[in-house]
Specification:
heterodimer; A: alpha/beta; TIM Barrel; eight-stranded parallel sheet; globular; B: alpha/beta; about 35% helix
Chain lengths: ~240, ~230
Amino acid sequence: MIIDMHAHLWDEHDKENRETITKVLDTFSIDKVFVSTLQVYYPTKEDVTRYNNKTYDFMKSDYRIGGFIYTDPVHDNSIEVIKKGLDEGFSAIKLWVSCLVDDPRVNKIAEFCIKENLPILTHAFKKAIGQLPYETSAIHVRNLALRYPELIIIMAHLGGNSYDGIRCISDLKNVYTDFSGTIFRGDDLAYAVEHLGAERILFGTDLPTGCLQCIGQVEGANLTKEQKEMIYYKNTQRILGVRV
Amino acid sequence: MIDYNCMIGQWPFRYLRKNTIDDLKKVHEKHKVESGYVSSLSSVFYNDPFEGDVKLFNEIKDSQYKMVISMNVSLPNLYRDIKKANDNFSYEGIRIYPSIHKYDLLGSKFNEFCHMVKEENKKLFISYRMGDIRLDYLYNQQLPDISTIKVLANNPYDLQLYLLNLKSQEITSLQDKFIKSPNVYFDSSDIKHETFAREFLKKEKIDHKVVFGSFFPLYTFESNYLIYTKT
């Protein structure tokens, strides 16, 4: 079984993205995909509503699609957005690049998530070039995790640079990570397993951009059957609980 | 199946767990890859790439692998370097790294170099990028302008040319060149951005120009193998 907990629809290409994701599900033995919809870095409230509606439509169309609620901490309705998503059957929260994840405006979301036992999937990347002004990296994830030790945080993309990101969160048991995206450097996943243990690593792809590179990383990392199972689906099942 | 983009040796920016000829053989055998054009990863950052090539030659000389020497076109006395390689090795091709060694692919020195490659009747492998530039914290690659690759893809030197580590959109921007130039190929090591990459290349009518490249050990072999064989 494989559960992909990190995929997207892009607002301007949602129809073709839906086709790609459905084709991946049909072709590559992936059983379930959790999707959030995104597009502009700094969305309006109307953008956020439209994005989540698109995710919801996709969820309704196929039982294999789950949803992560995209909310923007900058907006004063960020909690209402989450409540609406929960009513619609979404499973977790997605935070992106409009606001650093340790910004005080994230606090209310973190506290709500603790109360509702909702994980937060946050984008995280440390770039040598092209870092966005409010783009979270592992150190911001660390700050939030220390502030809220009960909060479950999933740091995406191994923090972008695994050798920086993994070291930053290795002692924080409430922080998990995924290796989604198109970076598939040899040994990144092996490094992450060594430092975090397989039980803190989740399978995500960043679909609709690529997929097999992530399966290849699991297959190429000299993992045991148990470790592979944890990464492919068991950790996500455990973290999302009934919301899987 | 042949791997047109594989290396062994050290990379200065991180510890590689699997980077020896035995590691390469093991992963190739497991996936029924019969042979490969192997170059020395260590040579990329050596002041004299020949030092890495000596080690590579000794490691692969009795194997199924074909040796590809590394050259830095910005260094002086290229003719002597090729002569030295001819005197010491049996090799099939020459690999260059313009994004690391930073020279003009349309300059006179590169022109001279290409004539030498033609004269020696060797394959030329051009590494367009060496991994994701967003992760270049200690040393910034300088990717050649894609317009210079377009000029080369016309194959003005009539070489057997392999353009390595191009992304899908870069490949499609060169589509007509690949179709027109019979001896110009690209490898599959960085076509990951299209989820169904081979299907995409087929639709663009250039799938017959792609050769398998794993970019071992810098990329995960299994990732590129799956992308090449299953999409």
